[in-house]
């Protein structure tokens, strides 16, 4: 598969298997080579601007995989790590 390949991840609407959805989103981030954006802290040697860009791209990708009613609860969060933690706290035990 090439980096430009397109993948479809169903939007998570708060119902269904959150763990399965989360795994698919992590796979999508890996395909886009932005999975490091899930880290809570900037990797050593990475410039601040590059880290901020990576955070925006990873957070945006996750939000694009959320239905509106779920995205509403995380749209104010700036990092992919914050979004992941919030979603896990709300939905991981429900599936």
Question: Which descriptors apply to this entry?
Answer:
single chain, 95 residues, mainly alpha, 4 helices
So what's the overall shape? globular
Show unreliable segments.
none
Overall pLDDT metric: 90
Radius of gyration: 13 Å
Domains (count) = 1
Structural class: mainly alpha
Strand content: under 5%
Give the strand tally: 0
Counting DSSP H or I runs of 4 or more residues, the number of helices is 4
Distance between the termini: 31 Å
Helical proportion?
40-55%
Largest sheet: none
Succession of helices and strands: HHHH
SSE order and pairing:
Blueprint: H1 18-31, H2 48-64, H3 68-71, H4 80-91
Give your account of this protein's structure.
By secondary structure, this protein is an all-alpha fold. The protein has one domain (18-94). 49% of the residues lie in helices and 0% in strands. The termini are far apart. The relative contact order is 0.20. The model has no long low-confidence stretch (mean pLDDT 90).
């Amino acid at each position: 598969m090439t980096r430009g390949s397109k993948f479809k991840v169903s939007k998570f609407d708060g119902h269904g298997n959150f763990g399965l959805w989360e795994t698919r989103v992590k796979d999508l981030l890996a395909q886009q080579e932005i999975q490091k954006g899930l880290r809570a802290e900037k990797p050593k040697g990475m410039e601040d601007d590059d880290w901020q860009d990576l955070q925006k791209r990873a957070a945006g990708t996750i939000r694009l995989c959320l239905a509106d009613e779920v995205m509403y609860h995380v749209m104010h969060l700036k990092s992919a790590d914050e979004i992941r933690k919030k979603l896990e706290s709300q939905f991981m035990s429900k599936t």
